[in-house]
Amino acid sequence: MLAGDTLTLFLSPGDGVADDIHVSRVDASTIRIEITGVSPIDATGIDQLIVEGNSDNNHLTLDYSGGVLVPSIQFNGGMQTGGEGDSLTVLGTFSDQILNYTTTGAGGNNGDLNLDGATITYTGLEPINAGNAANTILNLPVGFANDATLQNSVNAGDIEIVDNGATFEDTVIPNPTNSLTVNLGDMGDLLNVTTLDPGYAASLIINGGAASTDQVDLTNVDLVNTPGRGLWVTESETLNVTGGTISGNSAAIGGGILVDSSSTGPTTAIIDGATISGNTATGAAANQGGGGIFNNGAGMIVGNVVASTVSNNVANGALGSGGGIFNGPGGQLFVSSGSIISGNSANRAGGGIEDASNQTVINGVSLLGSFTLDNNVATGTASAPGNGGGLHVTGTSPTFIGAGSVSGNSAAEEGGGLWNNTGTMTIDGTTISGNTASGASADQGGGGVFNSGGTLLIGSTAPVDIRDNVADGAAGSGGGIFNFAGFLDVRSGTTITGNAANRAGGGIETTGGPGLTTILDGVSLDNNGALGGGVAGSPGNGGGLHVSGAGDILITGGTVNGNSAALEGGGLWNGGGIMTINGTT
């Protein structure tokens, strides 16, 4: 053949016998075409190969194992006799492999493949066996409502995408070594992802299309120890992750899972019965993190019907936040059904959960239904404070916490369990116990809860148990609660007991200017201690309650018993405001 030529192969008219065509590089200087029943053809030097099929089932194999083949290959399968139909198989290893599924014809499906720059165009095919690539991209057809399943293949080491609606050709794919991207069409697609090959260990990226009804369902999918993020879903209006384990992955944000809300409609993401563990977010900025999950504007439910576990994830960037979950701008996060957020850590804030949603009306974060938020850590560094061991709320978002447990969390400075900014945090029916805040300054602490200028409502509808929390910094204050220039309202039946602080306010420390800052109504404030830190500025005042500044206090009913202070005010210590006590023992 002459260099630059086009070679067109016309297969003989259909005789009921399948034709097999095999194209390979035999050596550095020879490309060979082998066809069933035909002498080998030397195709060295041609620029384009066209294979014109017949009415039988034709099988084209392109073997790149020995090196590059023809720059441009076109395979027109023709009509088919049923069964598997015309097929294309690619052999060899590639860096990037792109499959573009385009249109459907009378004889099958059409599209093209790009293999590290080499193009294969096809018409009238059914199945494709793709090449072995580090990165594989599947572009589903536009103009159709695709219904597809990504699943394990019968071939060990392979997965496959199956068309459930006759819009593109089924494709078998060797496990990618780096990433698999599925780009949906533009008519409202459904993609089901079920259990993949046991050896699958690539990042999974799914991008919805322009429609407002895309749905992605993952069932029992394991994404473990991939080279990057475990799962990234964008532009999909519905995401369901049911079962499976996402573990050992890493990215700047959302080491385990990143969900980007759709631009064409609100996104609802439900994570049920899944385990998200041991993932890392490396982003250095305060708005980066989410070692386990980064929710970028979606409505997300962790544990809708079945509990999920988010554990031992890390946001280890310089100002990384949200070791377990980062709820980003515009997001809404619900944790319920017994879900567990445990053992996560972050440098700046929110060892378990960071809320930066900046919601104004709806709750940014709601913790419900026997949730567990325990043993998370806001570690702190020279440049990062380390606030909110369990949960940290940045901005003004309302937060609701009900019917669960916040225990064993720790913060380098403030809010061992919970840290609220200027929004409203409502806590009902929850146990807050064994948390630690280690800030050394007098305005740091809040072993259980730290309220930084917001509104903190505790026990409004169901009693809260706040016990055995500690502010153990040299001048740490507010073992149970530190209300810093905010409004605190604690209601009937709530128990604040066994908490301790070094400087002041073993049970509660409250600060602020003139006006009503704190209400205790029917509260048991018992057996707390202001220990005294043994350093200047840490006297140990107000074993039960310590008031700094001119704020007013109203205490009605309840008890103040068994508290102790190293220096002054074993039960109560008042500053420059008015403390009113009615009917209290």
TrEMBL record:
Coiled coil: none annotated. It comes from Rhodopirellula maiorica SM1. PANTHER family: BLR4714 PROTEIN (PTHR34720:SF9), MICROCYSTIN DEPENDENT PROTEIN (PTHR34720). InterPro entries: PbH1, Pectin_lyase_fold/virulence. The lineage of its organism: Bacteria, Pseudomonadati, Planctomycetota, Planctomycetia, Pirellulales. This is Extracellular nuclease.
